[in-house]
Amino acid sequence: MSRSRLVGIVLLAGGLLLAGVFYWRSAREISVQTIPVQRDIEVRVFGIGTVEAQILSKIGFQIAGKVVTVAADQGDQVKAGALLAKLDDTAQRSKLLKSEVAMRQAAATLVRAQAQGERARATYQQKKSVNARRQTLLARGSVAQEGADDAQASEDIARSDLRVVEADAAIAAVLQDDAAAQRKIDAVLVDQHELRAPFDGRVIARHKELGGIANSGEAVFTLIEAESIWVRAYVDEALTGGLRVGQATFVKLRSEANRVVEAEVVRIDQENDRVTEERRVYVRCRACDPQHQLRYLGEQAEVEIVKTVVASGRFIPLKFVEAFDGQAGLIWVLENRRLAKRRVQFGERLLDGRIQIASELPANVEVVADDRSDLRDGRAARPANRAGS
Description:
Layout: H1 3-27, E1 30-32, E2 34-35, E3 38-53, E4 56-59, E5 65-70, E6 77-78, E7 83-87, H2 90-140, H3 145-191, E8 194-196, E9 201-206, E10 213-214, E11 221-224, E12 229-236, E13 248-253, E14 256-268, E15 278-285, E16 300-313, E17 315-317, E18 328-335, E19 338-349, E20 354-357, E21 365-368, E22 381-383
Parallel strand pairs: 1-22
Antiparallel strand pairs: 2-21, 3-12, 3-16, 4-11, 5-7, 5-10, 6-9, 7-8, 9-11, 12-15, 13-14, 13-16, 14-15, 17-20, 18-19, 18-21, 19-20
């Protein structure tokens, strides 16, 4: 075989090999992964926050004193009105006894003034009757003028005495009311030596011990209402469109990462955080055991709020989208068994990184989600998966 013929054979073989490689890499029909239509997909937004209590009270005495009784401790469940602590009230009880004595004394003074008033009233009536008779006899000439004048003067004096006694009785009544008011004040002050629970709740902190001095207004206990516990979560304001009270939520506590607690949105703050650009959303457990971990305030929690449910749609991982501008981008589609790029609009995002294709696509168009490097516009292809939704 001549050298030139051998070279020709080699070149022909090389050309056939290159043609085969070209066909294999660029022309042959390939198999690609496509995205099926999915139904009832929950669109969730993520937030992170802490366990808090809506009703939390740091309670203390209205007056200062030495603590002589401590009847509750951290973790105790208390009923409204239950005694929590007590101050030494010896001096105040003595004042209360003194005010009770003063009240009885004022009552006795009033009784005496009323009796004197009855006596003065009877005397006045008697003097008035005598004066009336004397004036009648004077008109008939049966009594001297001097006698009639004396009778008139006696009536006037009796009337004045009655008015004085009535004024004394009124003063005695006022003094009795004052003594009763003072007694009530002293009784209230006695009651203020006792600290009682303002509502049904749980003690989460005790700040004073037996024998300590509690100042006026200083916290002795911190109480929370167990039913008011919620998670205050911070959600990126860009994701909060469509959030509303009542939406289902799933909570994971840091101490129980494998357990999901069902909750719901109960409040959304009307003002966003201007620094972090986040919205505060409050979620509360729907049916929690009182002994659940959610009772620990300040624990970090992750929340996923079900913002909406997409009845039917296709969701593509964002890594398969080109020229994405936040609202639209280019994706590969399979139409009539040929690959093509199509610009589409996007909708809701899922927490796993997929995004909803909002543009309506013809029934014969399938969305390609394949990262192989030999995708070419117009290339023949077939779906590798025919799984339904």
